[in-house]
Amino acid sequence: MASLEPAINAPTPPFGDASSASGDEITAFVRQTEDSKAIDLAVEGAHCAACIVKIEDGLQKMDGVKRARLNLSTGRLAVSFTGPDSTAEEIVHRLEYLGYGAKPYQPETADDPRSDEEKRLLRALGVAGFASANVMLLSISVWAGEGEMSLPTITLMHWISGLIALPAVAYAGWPFFKNALTGLRARSVNMDLPISLAVLLACGLSIYETALGHGAAYFDAAVMLLFFLLIGRFLDVRLRARAGQAARDLAALQARIAHRIEPGGAVKAIPARDVRPGDLLRIAPGDRLPVDGEVIEGRGDVDAALVTGETQPQMLEPGALVYSGMINLNAPLTVKARAARDDSLLAEISRLVEAGEQGRSRYVRYADKAARAYVPGVFAMALITLVGWLAITGDVHDAVMNSIAVLIITCPCALALVTPAVQVVASGRLYGEGVLLKSGDALERLAEAKSVVFDKTGTLTLGRPSLINSDEISPRALTLAARLARGSRHPISRALADAAGPGPLADDLQEIAGGGLTGTADGAVIQFGSAAWLGLEQQGQDSDPSVLEAWLLVEGEAPVRFVFSDSLRADAPEAVEGLKAQGLPIELLSGDRDAPVAAAARALGLDRYQAGLKPQGKIDRINALKEAGENPIMVGDGINDAPALAAAHVSVSMGSAADISRSAADLVIQGDRLAALPRAIDIAKSARARMMENFALANIYNVIAVPLAVFGLVTPLVAAIAMSASSLVVMANALRLWRA
Pairing relation of β-strands 314-316 and 300-303? Predict the structure, then answer.
């Protein structure tokens, strides 16, 4: 017996089979694990939970396949198997049989797998819209001239409508036809099957009626049905495409090339995926660490923001541990690999992001629940209508007409637009408030939030050090220090250079890794750096741990203290007060040192905060809040925040944040206006109310319209108009959000 799949989205990409890789290309990506072999494939055409079940169950029935796991957000299918490498080719062939294309998953070069589908659906939507407009003009002419227009003229108008509608239906309806056929081939049915039947029967009956000159045709119903359905399909695909962008961006950060030191001392460039534990790697200044490792030789600074989120570079020396994704700033290093690329920190963060997004993509909407009974219900009603009218009247024409009317009038167009319509209007409203909505179901989850978690650096604060004691520094001292700072990429040096403005460099400028800068100016030796490097430990003993200090030492003069701090955003207090007014408890989680985190918490009146957290620590706290039923909002900006953003009930990123954080977030605050967050929550709550009202309207429509179709009180054309009207009612109710 055929299985019933409730999925609104069909299991194969429209307009043809997805491209698959050749056998040699597939086997080249097979890797050996401890007790089996594994391969990661990029699957095209998977849209819903039913697709996950079909793919995983279908592969795990194969001989030799031990495990198959599909991440719906990224399209990444991880398969482990035993046997020869050629088993990977059999896996790809099996996926093709199930209706899905596959090729090797290469995160560093992977594009959004749904971008092509978006373009195809947009073209189909344009064709359906063009055909609907022109066919409706002809239909209106026929309706307006009823009783006055001769039958040959009406027939001619219908033939012209058919010449416009039939090619448009063939092109615009292909996503539905293709998916319906694929489902039947796999011995299952999906929601595209009754849609396809309704469209094809309407077109077939229209051709029959027009050929016999009966004066009735329903070409307008067919193209209008496709137009409204494609709107919902396009919106859904576009929103789903955003879900996996963070993991793809994060994976693209992984270094593609590593420089391995061979036994003879030569340095050889190799693919980063070929690095093995124990390999010696040369990391040049500016290079990103390809794997986790240990510094064997060299001293210098690295940008560790990916791990800690802290703006202060980390000083490395032999014996220090380094992690993939860190950037070497100023000195060559020799690093001993401690893990392969797929087992390193950046890969782990990428997996954490995928796990969070996958959980989010399985968020079950009310529309999905209602759709579970759609396929069997529609077929049952259409069949009962057909058989009933044949039994009562014996008229095949009336029986088929009424059956088509049932298929059309019960089309899930209004139901499919319930959520997207509200999302579109709410997106525009949020945009006016300076907030970009990126995730399909973020509005519902934002309205459900009961707590807020903030990152510190770059979120509540500006994310960069700034000079805060310039009034204590003489113009001459500032000028001399800036002549050194302009020659360095260190964050403190850049902050000092920004404060002083453009100008010349010092002579004989040198940067000492982990220490500071030295050079000559005005005939004197000048140095700028840490107290320890300058031998000024006594002056640094009473330093405030919540700020950063550097010292200028000019030959023969007293040292000058420069103080830097990462300041709070101007509207951070307003945002915190607004959230508190809504009854939301607030917590601060940061990878920064305890002192600056505590200082920021005190300034904002926050009692709950934690410092020194790595990405996994933030995720653990987020999960604890979720288990407590607090549905936390996570607001962050750094690369190290991406996993926590993906794990949160709903996530918000600043507009100036790292690309990966913006991709992982559901909402992005443009202009870095934190005060927009409380307003966004108000809009989300109004949007949830409109969604629930739309569900009620869609259900009321079905309660009224279905009996009318079953009892033969509407024609297919009236059914199409009623279906379209229900969609317009849903859209009109969604537009009320503009006044919320």
Answer: antiparallel
